[in-house]
C-alpha cells in the first residue's frame, strides 16, 4: 500500500488574498506534478485535503489529472499546519487503499517522520510547495518506508 503525502502548491501572499489560493506558479507546479504522477501510473482511490483553499485546489488538480473515480474529500480538523499528528497517524495506519493526502507544513513533514521513524521530530524529508513523498507500507515488516520524494523544480518549467 502507498500513501502520497503532498504539500499544497505555492499560494498567493496573505496580504494579496487572505484565503490564499494557489498562485499561477503554484498551479503550474501542481499540474506538472499531476502529469508526472499520471505518466507514472500512480493510482489512488481517494484524495484528502485540509479544507484550506490552497490545499483543496491542489487536491482537485491532482484528482482531475489522475483520472475519473478519484474521490476528493475534505479532512478538516486533522490536516491543518499545527494539528497534532497522532489522530491522523492512527487513521492512516488503518488504510488498505492507496491514498493521496494534501496538507501543510509543518504537519506533513511531521507525519512523514512519524510514519517512517516513529518520531515526528526526526526530519526525514524537506518539503517545498507542491512536493510529493511516496511512502510504502509492508516492505520492512509492515512499517513505512520512503519509496521516493519529488519536488516540482525537478520536473522543469
Structure commentary:
The protein is α/β, with parallel strands linked by helices. It has helices spanning 24-39, 53-66, 85-93, 107-117, and strands spanning 2-7, 46-49, 71-74, 99-103, 132-140, 143-150. The radius of gyration is 14 Å and the shape is globular. The model has no long low-confidence stretch (mean pLDDT 92). The protein has a six-stranded mixed β-sheet with strand order 3-2-4-1-5-6, sandwiched between helices. The chain contains four helices and six strands. Helices cover 32% and strands 23% of the residues. It has one domain (2-155): Rossmann fold (3-Layer(aba) Sandwich).
What are the main properties of this structure?
157 residues; alpha/beta; Rossmann fold; six-stranded mixed β-sheet; 4 helices; 6 strands
Topology:
Elements (H helix, E strand, L loop, with lengths): L1 E6 L16 H16 L6 E4 L3 H14 L4 E4 L10 H9 L5 E5 L3 H11 L14 E9 L2 E8 L7
Gist of the model:
With 157 residues, this protein is α/β, with parallel strands linked by helices. It contains four helices and six strands; from the N terminus they run E-H-E-H-E-H-E-H-E-E.
State the CATH class.
Alpha Beta
Number of strands: 6
Q: Radius of gyration, rounded?
A: 14 Å
Number of helical segments with 4 or more residues:
4
Query: Could you report the average pLDDT, rounded to the nearest whole number?
Result: 92
Amino acid at each position: 500500500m502507498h500513501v502520497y503525502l503532498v504539500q499544497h502548491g505555492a499560494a498567493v501572499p496573505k496580504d494579496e488574498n487572505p484565503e490564499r489560493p494557489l498562485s499561477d506558479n503554484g498551479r503550474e507546479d501542481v499540474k506538472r506534478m499531476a502529469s508526472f504522477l499520471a505518466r507514472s501510473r500512480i493510482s489512488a482511490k481517494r484524495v484528502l485535503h485540509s479544507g484550506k483553499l490552497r490545499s483543496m485546489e491542489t487536491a482537485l488538480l491532482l484528482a482531475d489529472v489522475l483520472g475519473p473515480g478519484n474521490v476528493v474529500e475534505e479532512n478538516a480538523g486533522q490536516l491543518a499546519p499545527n494539528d497534532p499528528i497522532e489522530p491522523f497517524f492512527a487513521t492512516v495506519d488503518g488504510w488498505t487503499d492507496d491514498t493521496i493526502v494534501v496538507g501543510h507544513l509543518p504537519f506533513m513533514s511531521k507525519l512523514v517522520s512519524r510514519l517512517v521513524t516513529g518520531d515526528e521530530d526526526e526530519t526525514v524529508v524537506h518539503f517545498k510547495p507542491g512536493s510529493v513523498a511516496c511512502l510504502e507500507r509492508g516492505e520492512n515488516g509492515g512499517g513505512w518506508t520512503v519509496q521516493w520524494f519529488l519536488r516540482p523544480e525537478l520536473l522543469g518549467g
